[in-house]
Write a structure and sequence with these properties.
Oligomer: single chain
Number of strands: 9
Radius of gyration: 40 Å
Number of helices: 17
Strand content: 5-15%
Distance between the termini: 151 Å
Strand order of the largest sheet: 1-2-3-4
Structural class: alpha+beta
Shape: elongated
Length: 505
């Protein structure tokens, strides 16, 4: 039986000739020409997928990155001492881009004043009178240098309209607000001092009001007789009765003047540029700075309205009565023409208002709101007064204005204010403004039993809250209310209720 010599036979082992791995050609097989995976390129030590870092000649590190909106390369706003600091900045910038919080370096570079002008031009929904009001507020409080209270002698005034949007901070708004309040209060004090001086100079008006309150027959204007002056002095030179102080004083010494509140509201609205990416957040964060509390005004009584009308020039006496008993706004009233008034039914239709804009002649435009388009029924005694006025002072034709100057033009606000102020001084109500006649109309309607909704419709308000501003309580109504409450208690049979006569205050 043959035997094999294993010592001389060739033996193949995995150590000398390994088997090829699955999918790989062996050393003796030719490689096929299939696709080969490209090796990933190695980035340099200063490169990133979204930016790069390089060392400058000064030894500092500069970062460049890609603008996510334009695709252009941008350079970081500053250089860095170390590469680690540069990498941290680049990583943070990348995070902002991913989160959508990245802002272009040019965002907010526009001046606040320029942005405000463009914003007003784009607000086609605003009435021309509102735009004009905003421009006046901006000119007086935003574009004007203001000095903060208790500022040092070398303090720089704040002109916030000349600041770039991105630099308008919460601290700056707070400083501007304090400066505006300080300026407004100082100006109000100066006006009050001048008004007091004028009242002292025309103390004869107090004697005239005193005489009229006592039923003496005195003329609305002109010199008073020595006998009347002597009697007034003998009575202690009393001041006229009626509301004392101005509307600003009624708000209290700590109240923020209304013009400043309007300016803050405008600034807060404009700084909603955050919606356009101009700023990160609205810097107007002062609590309750935009809230305005309307001062409580004492409306004129029916007797005072009649006396004020008698003290007005005759061609405008009916306008005072109409304003007080209809509640029409001044612009609505002085825009009335013959075609707007039905003297048979006593109804007045409001479909336009006088439009006064700076640098332009007076004209007509739509009323304040859609709710202002309304028809108001006049009390019969006012209709009779208006009928006499139309016959005496209104030109023929359906488009003839009811109240005009002697030249037939629209009566301007300054002209009306001067005449009304003089008439109110005669009756001792220096605190009244023409707009307060609207308050009188609302109060009279409420006393006559009108509901809130009826007052809202009569005044042409879009909301009930706006109509509530024009309702005022009076001492006489409060006294009558108290008496009726006692009557209710007596009717209920309460044993410890006794009716006591109430004296008039």
């Amino acid at each position: 039986m043959p035997t094999h010599d294993t010592s001389t036979s060739p033996v193949t082992t995995s150590m000398t000739s390994p088997e090829p791995h699955l999918g790989e050609p062996s050393a003796n097989q030719p490689r096929t020409s299939g696709p080969r995976a490209r090796p990933r390129p190695r980035r340099g030590p200063g490169k990133r997928a979204h930016g790069s870092i390089r060392r400058t000649g000064s030894g500092r590190f500069q970062v460049r990155y890609t603008d996510p909106t334009s695709g252009k390369r941008r350079t970081a706003p500053q250089t860095f001492d170390t590469r680690a600091e540069a990498q941290d900045w680049l990583a943070g910038n990348r995070t902002d881009i991913v989160r959508g919080a990245w802002r272009s370096p040019e965002a907010g570079a526009e001046l606040l004043g320029d942005y405000l002008s463009a914003w007003l031009a784009s607000r086609v929904d605003l009435a021309p009178r509102t735009v004009d009001l905003y421009e006046q507020v901006a000119a007086r409080w935003l574009r004007r240098p203001l000095v903060a209270p208790r500022a040092s002698r070398g303090a720089v005034p704040i002109t916030i309209a000349e600041v770039e949007l991105r630099h308008v901070s919460t601290t700056m708004v707070r400083d501007w607000y304090a400066a505006a309040v300080h300026t407004a209060r100082a100006e109000a004090a100066e006006r009050a001092a001048r008004g007091n001086a004028r009242r002292r100079q025309r103390s004869v008006h107090a004697a005239r009001a005193w005489a009229r309150e006592r039923g003496l027959d005195v003329a609305p204007t002109g010199r008073l007789s020595p006998a009347v002056l002597a009697a007034w002095r003998a009575d202690g030179s009393p001041e006229p009765t009626g509301a004392e102080g101005s509307s600003q004083a009624a708000q209290g010494p700590a109240a923020v003047p209304t013009p400043v509140t309007q300016a803050y509201r405008l600034l807060r609205t404009v700084m909603q540029a955050v919606r356009e990416g101009q700023v990160l957040a609205n810097p107007c964060q002062i609590p309750r700075a935009g809230a305005h509390r309307a001062p409580e005004r004492v409306p004129a009584t029916a007797e005072q309205v009649a006396r004020i009308a008698a003290a007005m020039p005759e061609r405008y006496a009916a306008a005072v009565q109409l304003a007080a008993w209809s509640g029409l706004r001044a612009g609505e009233l002085f825009a009335l023409a013959r075609r707007h008034v039905d003297l048979e039914t006593g109804r007045v239709r409001v479909d336009r208002a006088v439009l006064e804009l700076r640098g332009r002649p007076s004209g007509f435009g739509p009323p304040k709101t859609d709710a202002s388009l309304r028809t108001v029924t006049l009390p019969p005694h006012v209709t009779a007064i208006l009928r006499v006025h139309v016959d005496a002072y209104t030109a023929p034709g359906s488009d003839a204005l009811l109240f005009t100057t002697e030249a037939g033009r629209i009566l301007s606000t300054p002209q009306r204010t001067v005449m009304f102020r003089r008439a109110c001084a005669v009756v001792g109500r220096d605190d009244l403004r023409w707009h307060d006649l609207r308050h009188t109309g609302a109060t009279m309607a409420a006393h006559a039993g009108a509901s809130i909704r009826e007052i809202q419709a009569r005044l042409g308000h879009a909301t009930v809250a706006a109509a509530m501003i024009y309702q005022h309580a009076t001492d006489e109504r409060d006294r009558l209310l108290a008496e009726r409450m006692t009557a209710l208690a007596q009717a209920a049979g309460a044993e410890n209720v006794h009716a006591l006569p109430l004296r008039r205050a």
